[in-house]
Specification:
mainly alpha; Glycosyltransferase; two-stranded antiparallel ribbon
Length: 605
Amino acid sequence: MIDLQRLVRAHDAARRDLLAWRTAEGHWVGRLSGSALSTATATSAMALVDRHASPRSNHAPLIARAVDWLLRHQNDDGGWGDTDRSRSNVATTMLVRAAMHLAGVADEHAGPLGRAEACLDAQGGIPGLRRRYGRDKTFAVPILTNCALAGLVPWDEVSPLPFELACFPHPLLRFLRLPVVSYAVPALVAMGQARYFHRPPRNPITRLVRRLAVQRSLAVLGRMQPDSGGYLEATPLTSFVVMSLASIGRANHPVVRRGVEFLVASAGEDGCWPIDTNLATWNTTLAIGALAGGEREGAGLGDVELLVECLLACQHRRVHPFTNAAPGGWGWTDLSGAVPDVDDTAGALLALRILQQRTHEVDDGRRREIRSAVEAGVRWLLDVENADGGWPTFCRGWGALPFDRSAPDLTAHAIRALGAWRATLPEAIDAAVARGFVYLARRQRPDGSWVPLWFGNEHDPAEENPVYGTARVLAAYAALGRSGDAAARRGLDWLCCHRNADGGWGGDLDQVSGVEETALATEALLGAADDRSLEVVIAEGLNWLVEAVASGRHRRSEPIGFYFARLWYYEAMYPLVFTVSALARAVDRLSLHATAHRDSTRSVR
């Protein structure tokens, strides 16, 4: 049912496309989509700095380009989505509307803003925004603060944030039940102060406590700000900090100045900003994993020494000032705003395992460096595992909000990485992995699927992506030889039953088939040993991917959710790297079968 030669040609074509994204420095950076949400928040921040700075600053050319980009990317319904391929949503539309008012162009563009108002009414306005984010204030408060700064909502609509809590030692913060996720302490401080100064609390004790905490919490902001000036290398978070402080007379504060420098430096030539600067470390680890297979093992990896050097340079060697994370982890980028996290640490460890198998190309000193880095990374992962057996994103024990709780996709990735380096600390790893599988079995939904934290799908009614989550979890079961477990069997059955009639997968059943989901689902099924009951489904998935490569569809990215907050983006490398990885596994498997068949035929003769 599969033409091996056609499959190999498709793999080679996709592989060439992926290699074309490799930089002169030997690694991969990728390209994140422009974001209306990021562009709107950057516009608001620069407009408020221009209004309040002394001496006056002038970012009018950047603001004008941003406004033009936003107007060109307004959707037909009058709203804005996070990317140029996204549906309108209440959060981004509110932010763009606020940016237009703060930039002083609302009257000039009354027509587009009138259509935006109609879209907001249709999506429920402020109540609709609150429904979107529930009790998590990480995004709802910043969005409403931005709107209040533009004079579009009263300050009473903005929940006060207890910014004084940021003055506590970081190890205590997880016990204080903050109303924002762990990474959002800069927003807690800046937006909390903006609300305090624009609408002081009535309670005199609260007013006094917060007044006394202003300078100390500002010092926390300064300590957390990276050299680049961009918190998490993220435009929205940095912009929310800048606009809040600028509005309360601190437009010349060092945190604001460095934040503005980051915004100016990260502006795109077309007038927009991405959601983050880049995902260089993450994309590089994905590319290494994808290129390591496919008939010629290791073909395309190129200079192994250069890749090892790149990954080792990205490992965090000190306690991180942002999350207080211990040394040993990796973040998503090689830039200063990265924060060590579970997904990227697991990805780096898996990539180093692949490179370590080719260490004949590097010297003894470098091999010792790899061992040292791996030991630190393994210990980091082991220490971050939560009491429930799962792994969170950044910090152990921050369980108040969804982003900080354990997640199936993160747990599966950590299990794979620890399993790959079991010999490092066998007893500790075996115990952690066992707890992880217990967690995964508990988190499996009754229908057999798993829902991930970091990736969603706009077309799903709940904006979830169970195909992504299930595929990622099944990869962990396969990697540790447990595809026969009952939970894994239910997951495989779910994937088989949730493909589309065209042989591909969307985020869930009857959603448009996408390259990312189809590649991940097909690879997950290929990993289930030699289960012949899956052959028809695998063949149809592979044929779908081969046709996608033939038509060039494997080069088109689709918006994929940026965790539970439904912050959408797309990355140009995702469809390429997932396609190469799936086709490489298929080439390896079918080539092995073809060799076995030839050998058995010779034996009979």
